[in-house]
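Before our next group meeting I need something from you. Please put the record directly below this note.
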Amino acid sequence: MHSLSFSELLPANAFVLLIVLCRVAAAVGLMPGFGEAYVTMRVRASLAVLITIVVAPLVADTLPPEPTNFLRLTMLIIGEIFIGAFMGLMSKVLLGSLETAGAIIATQSSLASAITFNPGAETQETLPAGLFGALALVLIFALNLHHMLLIGVVDSYQAFPVGEGPPFDDLSRVMIQLVSQGFIISLELAAPYIILGTLFYLALGLIGRVMPQLQVFYIALPLQIMGGLTMLALTLSASILWFLGVFQTLLTGFMRGP
């Protein structure tokens, strides 16, 4: 039972909801699927409020008392927004490796000029990158991996208690590791295309050396596009499933910490 009167209990609960909402809203606004551009701000705000109502009673005991200083309250809100944005950005950085892999595949397959519009990021990207990103996003929700992202936000209150300030050195180290891991994932996904593309260009160089009069470009371009599409059809499902396994493993490891 609370020993506070109603006039004191209402501001205390409002403070808890406000602090939890800052971290949850920042995380939801950057998470894959939830924070895409085609998801309206009203839907994202409603989802953040619903999650806050569920999470607030679970973490209320870990929150510090309501500060009486306005500057202290402002710094507390900024710190919570920063940690929530970092939690949402972690998965976004790993998904960005699919765009890098798709760009490499498009270059090796002569599909770099085939540009499509990505409605989620509101940017132009190559066809393989758009295919990889859309398929991975659908499978994340189909396999309930988005539950892991939301649970990670709740568990972050144990790793990053409210009121202690963001550990910028640890967060920067984690982000550097995520970016490096994402680049490695991109190279691993595009490795078959890089190998075959190198062998294909080597064969073209030898043919051009033996037969200088032959217009290698007009013959090679259709073959390269056909080979890239064939390779994409053969490896797409295995590549996406492998990426989702790595995605889950890396995020689970980073969220648990050392």
In short: The chain has a mean pLDDT of 81. The helical segments are 6-28, 41-59, 70-108, 127-142, 145-159, 168-210, 216-256. The longest helix spans residues 168-210.
